[in-house]
Amino acid sequence: MTLAVLNIDWQTLTDAVALGAIYALMAVGIGLVFGVLRLVNFAYGQLVMAGAFALALASQWGWPVWAGIVLCFAVVLVLSLAMDRLVFRPLRSHSPAVMLVATFAVAFLLQSVAVLWFGSLGKIATSLAYLNRPVTISNVDIRKITIVAVIVALACLLALTALLERTTIGLHMRAASMDFQTARILGVRANRVIAVAVLLSGALAAVVAVMLTVQTPLVTPDFALRDTIIVLAGVVLGGMNRPVSATLGGFAIGFASGLLGGALPTDKSQYLPSFLFAAVILVLLVRPRGLFARKGAVERV
Amino acid sequence: MRRLIGLQELAGPMLLVVAAALLGTVVSISTQSYFTDALVKVAIVVALYVFIGNSGVLSFGHVSFVAVGAWTAGVLSVPAAEKPAIMPSLAHVLRDRTVGNLSSLALAALVGGICALIVALPLMRLSGLAAGIATFGVLEITHNLLRYEEKIGPGLNTFSSVPETTGLRQAALGALVVIVAAYAYGRSRLGRLLRATREDPAAARAAGVSVYRQRVTAFALSGLLAGLAGGLYVHLLPVNTESVYLDLTFITLAMLVIGGATSLWGAVVGALAVSALDSYLAVAENGTSFLGWQIDLPAGTRVIVVGALMAVVLILRPSGLTGGRELRLRWPW
Question: Which residues pair with A134 in a beta bridge?
Fold first, then answer.
C-alpha cells in the first residue's frame, strides 16, 4: 500500500536493491582499507574505472568473457598494489586530512591518464550485455543483472566475513583495525595485513567494475566517479569504524538513491543529487559518528 | 619592531601579487590572460585559506560560494537586452535589473557570505570526515541547483555576454583586497582564537573558546571572499556550472596544499607557483620551445603533472612548499 502511495513499483524496488548491493561492495572496499590504514581512498572509483576500461578493451579485441574478467581483475589488483606502494605507504604516518587530499590527487591523476589514453568519449563494453535482458517473475520484469548483482554481492560479503572471522589473517586484520600499534607489538605484520586489505579492496573494485559495466556499458574516464562520491557519503553515514556499519551505509545510500530516483516525479528527477545530499547532511548532523556506529567509538580524524 | 615583522607577513604576499601583475603587463596579450587567471586563483585560494588554514578543518565545499558569487555577479551584469537570449526563464526581479561592475562584485561577496553563513550554522557542529563529506554535499547541492534552476541563472548555458571587466588590474586589486582581509582576520583576536582551536581543541575549549562560533565566523568570512573571487571569475571568462565544480575544487585545494595550508604566504605562493606551471604546460600542450628544445605535450598532460606534483609534495613535504609558515626575513641589523 505505502509503496503504491509513493508511486514505486516492483521494478524500481528491485533496481534499488541491486544498486544498494553494488554500493555495499564499494563501501566494503573503502571500509577495509580505512580499517587498517585510517585512509579514505577517494581514488577507489578510478580503480573501478580502470577495470571497466579493461573490460571494454577486451570486448573490443573480441576476447571471450572469462578472459575479459581475468584482465579486469589483473589490472585492478596491480593498480591497487601500486597505489599502496607509491602513495599509501609513504603517507602512512601523515594526518588523515593529508592522506585524503593525496588520494584526491591520485583520483584526478588516474582520470586524466584515462583521458589521455582512451579519450573523453569513452569505449563500450558489450560482452556481458545479455545480462541486461529481463526475466519475468510473476508479472514483474526483472533484469538478470539485478539478480546477479544481489547474489554476487551476498556471496562476496559472506566470503569476506568468513575470511575475517575464521582465518588467521582475518584475525590480524581485525586486530589491526582495532588498534594498529598494539597489534604490531603482538606480532601482526603491518605490511602484510595492509597488502591483504588493499588486495581484497581491489578485488571488490574489480567485481564492481564487472557489474557496473553491465548496467552502464559506456565506459568514460569519469566512470564510477559519481558513484564513489555517493558511496563515500554512504560509508561516512553508516560509520567508518566497522566494516558492517560501512556496508550498511553503502547499501542504504544505494537503495535510497535508487528509490528516490523512481519516486521523484519526472519534472523533479534532475534534483535527485540535491535531495540525496541534503538527506546525507541531515543524517550527519543528527548522528555525526554514523547511523550504525557503535556507541563510544572515537573519531580519529 | 614586532609590528614591522607583522607587516612583513602582509607585505610579502602583496608584493608577490604586484610583481605578478607587473610581469603580466610586459608580456603579450595572449600570455597576459594566464596572469589574470592566476591572480583570480590567488583570490580563491586565499579565501580557502581563511577557513581551512586557520581552522585546520578540510572543506570541499568552498567552490560553492565561488559559484554563487559568479552567478550573482553574472546574472546582474548581463546587459538587459541580452538577458532573454541566454536566460529565458529568469525571475522578473533579476530580469529587469542590471548593475555596474563594482556593485556586482560587492553583491557577489555579500551573497557568498550570506550563503556561507547559512551553511555554516548547522555544518560547523561537525568535524573531521563528517565535515568533509557534508561540505562535499554542499558542493553537490549547489552544482545541482545552479545547473537546473533556470529562474536564477543560465542553467546549462554558459554565461556569455557578461562584461569582461576583470583585466589584469581588476584581478590584481581583487587579489590584494582578499589578501588584506585575510591578513586582518588572521591578526585579529578572532583569527588567533580560531588558530588556538586548530592547535589544541581541548585546551582552547578549556580556556573558554567556542570552537563552533569561531569556525562559523571564519567560514562566513571565507565564503564572502570566495563570493568576491567568483564575481571576479565571471567577469574574466564565460563561466558555466562545470567550470565552478570538481576541477576548480581540485586545483584550488592542490594550490593551497602545495603552498602550505596553514599560512597566507603559503596560499599565495601555492596559487602562483601551480598557476605558473599549469599555464606553462597549457602552452606546451599547444607546442612551444624551451632552451632550443621543441616541446609538444599531448593534451591532458597538465592535470597529470599537477596531480603528480601534489602527491609528491604531500609525501615529501606534507606541510607544503613554505612549510606552512609566514614569510620571515632575517633583518641584517
Answer: A143
Beta bridge partners of A141: A136
Interface touch B311/A106, C-beta < 8 Å: yes
Q: Which residues of A touch B136 (CB under 8 A)?
A: 229, 232-233, 277
Evaluate whether A212 touches A25 at the Cβ level (below 8 Å): no
Q: Which amino acid is at B73?
A: A
Q: Is the CB of A236 less than 8 angstroms away from the CB of B133? A: yes
pLDDT at B202 over 70: yes
Quick check: B29 pLDDT over 90? no
For residue B192, which amino acid is it?
Answer: R
What is the distance between the alpha carbons of residues B154 and B234, in angstroms, rounded to a whole number?
A: 13
User: Is residue B13 exposed (0-12), middle (13-18) or buried (19+ Cβ within 10 Å)?
Assistant: buried
Give me B206's grid cell.
578549556
What's the pLDDT score for residue B97?
Answer: 84
- Interface check for A108 against chain B (CB to CB < 8 A): the answer is yes
Note the pLDDT of residue A295.
58
Q: Give the closest of B140, B314, B315 to A277, CB-based.
A: B140
Residue of A nearest to B134 (CA): A281
- Cα torsion B146, B152, B158, B161 to 10°: value is -150
- Average pLDDT, integer, range B118-130: 91
Contacts of A233 in chain B (CB under 8 A): 133, 136-137
Compute the mean pLDDT over every residue in chain B, rounded to the nearest whole number: 90
Contact with chain B for residue A82, Cβ under 8 A = no
> How far apart are the C-alpha atoms of B172 and B266, rounded to whole Å?
18
Give the CA angle between residues B54, B57, B61 to the nearest 5°.
Answer: 105
B contacts of A105 (beta carbons < 8 Å)? 250, 254, 307-308, 310-311, 314
- Residues A99/B142/B155/B74 CA torsion (nearest 10 deg): -90
Closest chain A C-alpha to B60 CA, distance in angstroms: 10
User: In which residue ranges of chain A is pLDDT below 50?
Assistant: 1-2, 297-301
Measured between alpha carbons, how far is B233 from B246 in angstroms, rounded to an integer? Answer: 16
B148: nearest CA in chain A? A270
What pLDDT shows up at residue B289? Answer: 66
Inter-chain touch A96–B129, beta carbons under 8 Å? yes
